[in-house]
User: Fold these one by one.
Assistant:
Number 1:
Amino acid sequence: MDIVGIVDNNDVSSESRHVSDYITFRSHGRSFRLSRADVVRSLKGVDPEPVRTHGVDIGGSLYPIKQVFSIATGLDRLDFTSEVARRHLDHLGFSPVRIEGPL
């Protein structure tokens, strides 16, 4: 996955963490622009799958990080790593967590 850049529009600094209104990136020849609202909206009515290792709370439900990023972007889960999904979602203000053991 090629990361063209993360666009910080109206950044809010929280200690050393920067939260962006939206991010832009390229993957597999496609350009993406994604906001926190886009992520939340894309998951409306979607049941969370069981979390194995990395999760993120969206609207009070814990989702697998790759499920969230795949649904929000339309990318196949094999086309990105959990690390890429965590980094992008973190820039949007979500707080990815590591789970020890299945939930």
Note: The chain has one domain: 12-98.
Number 2:
Amino acid sequence: MSIQHPEITSADLAEIRGRLEAEAQARSQLLAEGDADGELEEGLRLTAEQFVADLRDAIERIDDGRYGFCEACGGAIAAARLEAVPTAAQCVSCVDRPLRPLGR
């Protein structure tokens, strides 16, 4: 998808990408140091690893031109949501949508 987000400029994307990349590098370094010291509990380590993966996924969506668009419905994710949760991959409507039981 190569559609321009209605609320995010190319300059905004470059800034967001830089912040996400810096955060991913810093978190990865902390993870490596914590693992080397044996200081991270398993649950904390897994949560931190998932956050780093979410950061990397957001960077990939920027690079692919998909950042800011909902992975579920394809609509634009509100800039306010992306400001609050830069790794958001779904709009609020889709996140809040209850799961439908299988087979219905």
Note: The chain has a mean pLDDT of 88.
